[in-house]
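User: Okay, second chain of the day. Same drill as before: sequence in, structure tokens out.
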Amino acid sequence: MDRLDGKQILMIVGQKNYNEEEFDYLFQRLESEGADVFVASNQLEQALGRLEGSVTPDEAIEEVDPAEYDALVLIGGYAARLFLWDDEKTHQLVRKANDLNKLIAAISTAPVVLANAGILKGRKATVFPDYDATLSLQENGAKFIYEDVVVDENIITCNHTRYKEQFAEAIIKYLSKTHEKTSESLQES
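Assistant: Same drill. Structure tokens below.
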């Protein structure tokens, strides 16, 4: 049995210039563990990567019901800065998911979305080592930690594409634990 059987994961990408290396690796890795992986973006039209990749979103961000997913995974790159950092619809989605105690994971520049949504106040987090990105975390009350991957309760952040494997493993480990708890409670019933 795969570690993420039955888990529903929503990956969020900005409309143009998302980081394909992060997206492709995480999508394939999470699917290979048994998760059902879906994609959302600002619009339903094809989202374009920074190189030559593209993906057709399953949902527009404004239409997402976070209760339908076990986790949100936000992909970085210039797209996060341009299309997600200050997008109120994305902020609302992230806040709702956090209120439901869903796993929220963000890599490279994407943790700024979480900070701007207001869910990192008093929480440990990391982000791509860029002045604007680190400043955004600090100004929004996050406890910025310069580490590759930081886990603080239901929030996982990663500061660079080169640590995508560790980031994926942290997501899988977190969701596997919630899977085990669900399986145990079903067996007890």
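Residues 182-187 have pLDDT under 50 and may be disordered.

User: Thanks, on to the next one.
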